[in-house]
Specification:
Elements lengths: L3 E4 L6 H12 L4 E5 L2 H7 L4 E4 L5 H10 L4 E4 L5 H6 L1 H22 L2 E3 L2 E2 L10 E3 L10 H20 L3 E2 L1 E3 L1 E3 L12 H11 L2 E4 L7 E5 H12 L12 E2 L3 E3 L1 H11 L4 E4 L3 H9 L3 E2 L2 H7 L7 H17 L4
Parallel strand pairs: 1-2, 1-4, 2-3, 4-5, 5-8, 6-9, 7-16, 9-13, 10-12, 11-15
Antiparallel strand pairs: 12-14
Length: 320
């Protein structure tokens, strides 16, 4: 890829993916598309940013043509917990953006990355060492969209030759911006609350194991997969990737070892509890390791130390 368009660039992943892609491909070769005008203005401080509604296929196509795009990162999604509040809206946004991305990638011969998620799995999926190829019967509209997206992306690859690639992201921990309504949001929020209030109220059960990934590894995974030799890719849509798995209680205790005054309690959200119970404890990512060399760098302790350092600075500066 030489010219890249990131759609949904103002979200948790996009705000850090854009500068990552600029480092890899050059600042002049990355365009950030975002529907919210205030976010476009903020993004434009550091990159070429345009107002773009992924559900408007005409405007979307005009942007691809204008900027001579040959690689699309489609990050548009209404996340798991928020999606359960309005399933029809989640379907229309998630699938509408994907279908437009697929059809435009086909028309303009672009490579296309669209992230899937651990949300694609369900209650009857093996939860420990979840295989690459297994039963996928999610019980959330977010998960239904992700499974549908994987199938459609594979279809467009086999039927039309569109270079579609994807990973199943676990919960992503980051400090670029606050998360936007996912079940694993607690693992980001707590790092700010420990400095703002010294305590945190968690809405996910204390013993809920879920796979997590630190953002630097998530970013590296996207470009590593998109640059991978296509002849070695047996699975395209979508690869399990993982690195660490823990419960809220384990994370909070690890933080307390570093900040002894930190306290927490639980007020369980039944929706998030049900979602977390249906997701894998940890996934088997051996196919990603074998097919394109997936090799995460950040472990739990390194992630905690880095998050505490950066989030403390942001809270002290009044950014959050």
């Amino acid at each position: 890829m030489k010219r890249i368009l990131v759609v949904g660039a103002g979200g948790q992943i996009g705000t850090e993916l854009v500068p990552h892609l600029q480092k890899v491909y050059g600042k002049e070769n990355v365009v950030a598309g975002e529907v919210r005008e205030d976010v476009v203005k903020k993004l434009s401080e550091n990159c070429e940013a345009i107002k773009l509604d992924a559900l408007d296929i005409q405007g979307y196509g005009e942007a691809i043509k204008k900027y001579k795009i040959d690689g699309i990162y489609n990050l548009v999604a209404l996340l798991s917990a928020k999606g359960e509040m309005n399933p029809l809206l989640a379907w229309n946004i998630n699938m509408g953006a994907l279908l437009n991305s697929l059809n435009l990638a086909k028309e303009f011969k672009c490579a296309l990355f669209t992230p899937s998620s651990i949300g694609a799995f369900g209650e009857n999926t093996p939860h420990k060492g979840t295989p690459q190829d297994t039963v996928m019967r999610p019980n959330t509209i977010y998960g239904v969209c992700k499974v549908s997206g994987e199938l459609l992306s594979d279809y467009y690859f086999h039927k039309f030759g569109v270079d579609t690639r994807s990973v199943r992201f676990p919960g992503i921990i980051s400090n670029g911006c606050l998360p936007g309504g996912g079940t694993t949001d607690y693992a980001v929020e707590v790092f700010y609350e420990v400095f703002k209030n010294g305590k945190y109220t968690c809405t996910v059960p204390q013993d809920a194991y879920m796979d997590m990934l630190y953002m630097p590894d998530a970013l590296e995974a996207t470009t590593q997969l998109m640059e991978a030799d296509p002849t070695k890719l047996i699975h395209r849509n979508s690869f399990n990737i993982a690195n660490m798995s823990f419960t809220p209680e384990e994370l909070f205790n690890a933080i307390k070892k570093r900040i002894p005054t930190f306290t927490w309690n639980y007020e369980i959200d039944p929706v998030k509890a049900a979602i977390s119970a249906s997701w894998p404890d940890y996934m088997d990512d051996s196919c990603a390791r074998a097919e394109w060399g997936w090799n995460p760098k950040w472990d739990l302790d390194a992630m905690i130390d880095d998050m505490l350092k950066i989030c403390k600075q942001k809270v002290e500066q009044g950014l959050y």
